[in-house]
Amino acid sequence: MTCTETQEKLTRGEALDDGERDHALSCAECGAFAAACATLDVALTELEPCVPEGFADRVMARIEREVDGPRGRERATPTLWYEQRWAGMLLASAAALVAILNFARFVAGVLMPVGSVGGAP
Ligand SMILES: [Zn+2]
Q1: How far does residue 31's CA lie from ligand 1's centre (Å)?
Q2: Which of 33, 56, 76, 83 is the most buried (most CB within 10 A)?
Q3: What is the DSSP letter of 114?
Q4: How far is the CA of 43 from the centre of ligand 1 (A)?
Q5: Percentage helix, strand, coil for the chain under 3-state DSSP, each rounded to 5
Q6: Alpha-carbon distance values, 30 to 7, 35, 61, 100 (Å)
Q7: pLDDT of 90 over the 90 cut
Q8: DSSP 77
């Protein structure tokens, strides 16, 4: 057996066989590890899970408040004209129309010979 195996067994809380116990008693590293495990076990059993009174209710109330918060803000109607939904749609449509007209002008300028539109060749 190795130090690692012995310490893994101690960590899992498994009982050591005679050889491992002898090793833990003679090996300084494993002895210290076993002592630390024993101390930790005692500390953990002394710790009682204590939840403050009304903790769950406070958590649930807080969650409800946070869930309601953003929805409440979303329900409020925007006051400025450019925050309205129709204004955004109108501006986006106007921008798309300008872009299409610009593209059509560019394509027409490339495809049509300059002379046919009346410009100087
Ligand atoms: Zn050891």
Answers
A1: 7
A2: 33
A3: G
A4: 24
A5: 75, 0, 25
A6: 6, 9, 49, 78
A7: yes
A8: P
Phi and psi, residue 68, nearest 5°? -75, -30
Rounded to 5 degrees, φ, ψ at 52 are -60, 155
CB under 8 Å to 59, separation ≥6 — which residues? none
Alpha carbon of 41 to ligand 1 centroid (Å): 20
CB of 27 within 8 A of CB of 2? no
Task: State the average pLDDT over residues 43-47.
Answer: 77
**Ligand 1: distance of its center to the CA of 19 in Å?**
11
